[in-house]
Amino acid sequence: MTLPMRLRHWVRTRLVPALPDPLYDFVLLSHARLSHGMGPRWPNLSNPQRMSDKIIALKRFYRAPDASILADKLAVREVVKERVGAHALVPLLASADRPEAIDLDALPERFVVKPNHASGLILFCDKSRLDWPAAMATMRGWLATDYGVYAREYQYSGITPRLLVEADLGVIYGRVPQVHMIYCFAGMARYFWMDDERPSGRRRSLMDRNWQRQPYTMRYPMPEALPPRPERLEAMFEMADRMAAGQLFARVDVYDAPDRVLFNEITFHHNGGYLPFLPDWGDLAMGRELHLPPLGPGAR
């Protein structure tokens, strides 16, 4: 590892996690904004109006009902069965409390490994070129990390770490189905993030339930043309409705597979609240959709 890489690793794993919450939020929010041509900004948590500030306030001062169950990638499977049906689940091949307990010989040529107590971590495994000792080292690192502390998201601290081994959807369908993020407010799915991968880079549209595009986006620019309406759009919204029931705010992620909609995950603090809306006023526009109760000392 080169010196610049070691320095970045130290900043990410040692310095930033040690910061007090207000400074941590300022650093990560400002980094997201500076990366997209906007100036640094302190979150306003005493009277939040922006979507980013409201998500950070929820993270700091609110505890969503059943958050640790819904965020647990193993436990949530039972919730999906009850609310949607077993047909909406990615096939589970195995689960284990340590990598040594995974029977590699019993698994297919290609499979996927995830931790149950975090978001966005995944290993795509192909036995023809798999470095299993290195993969196990990665898994041990996952299991040893409290992502509630590392990412300042309380729901992950309430989860007993385990590993999931899932079927590789790319094997089942010939390609990994596209994942769509759905924003849910007061238990109702309202907005659909539609991504379009292009040689020139990703494009993103924010669509409402009537497939009307909103005049702002997040992180990636909008395409010129209106994206095509997915065939199973209403089924995706209905799944999100059921999974976000009873929640002030949640982001429900689903796979748009060729033959069905599959549940991916539910999260309560999209990107930790460090959201680079484009243009910047989109942060305020989306914030008007999220109505908060009084939160924390001095909130109003």
From TrEMBL:
Pfam families attached to this UniProt entry: ATPgrasp_TupA
Protein name: TupA-like ATPgrasp
Organism: Devosia enhydra
Taxonomy of the source species: Bacteria, Pseudomonadati, Pseudomonadota, Alphaproteobacteria, Hyphomicrobiales
